């Protein structure tokens, strides 16, 4: 009124129940999302694998303590940096960088696993790793970033190499063992059949080895075999293949020079072993070697036949007085297309 007193009030009421309910739902969802995010963060922080996450621009958004330890980069420094500034992985064999990029529009997103990766740190130290890279896609199939999970695989990789080496090498001498030598020889025979060429196979049998074993025992025999293996490696070039077949029998493949070089190389081996000057318990032992030669070329038959042919030639060398070289006769070598059996392989 004129005196300023309220006579009546006019207002309106709006039902905001649905809005409040929506706000409540949003708050609950946000709380649940925050809980889920925290649960995920704690999980990723706690697992034993290293984890790095990036956004769509390949910048690091998350890094757990194991990833910090393996990369040598603190998470505070890493966040927001391009992935390549923190994580650089190369292929163990080729040394080429393993690319970690978004999938193309036409490519179906998939996990990429690599068990031959090597992590190169900033100080150039290296660590063998096993990594799994997974793209992050939203519900509209849009690329949102990457998750890289990796493990320190150094010890496991070293064990794999040790097992592979042990499977292919003679434990006593370190030379190739019989099984790996046979595989190599089969490959060379196949190459000769396809592409021509020629190699020389040697069957090397020690002379008077039994006397060393009988007088000095197995320890003396083992020491002598190691000396012979070392002598063979020293006489022959690094490109030649040397193996211990078993006992006091060794095998050599001359991959360079072919058959023409065989007798000269064999004589060098015999001379080197004869002058080995092996002593055990104050006693000097004189040993020698007899060698049988057989060519590896198209028409020489299978690996077992070539070895048997060289073994027979080695037997002839021993019969001729030991310390000799004998070559398989050319007539003993059949053409692969001929059905006749090998005549003089025993």
Q: If you had to describe this structure to a student in words, what would you say it looks like?
A:
- The protein is α+β, with helices and mostly antiparallel strands.
- It folds into two domains: 20-158, 2-Layer Sandwich (Beta-Lactamase); 169-332, 2-Layer Sandwich (Alpha-Beta Plaits), CATH 3.30.70.270.
- It has eight helices and 13 strands.
- The strands form three sheets. It has a six-stranded antiparallel beta sheet. Strands 8-9-7-12-13 form a five-stranded mixed beta sheet. A two-stranded antiparallel ribbon has the order 10-11.
- A hairpin with a 5-residue loop joins β1 and β2 (60-63).
- The N and C termini lie far apart (135 Å).
- 29% of the residues are buried.
- Mean pLDDT is 86; it is low at 335-346.
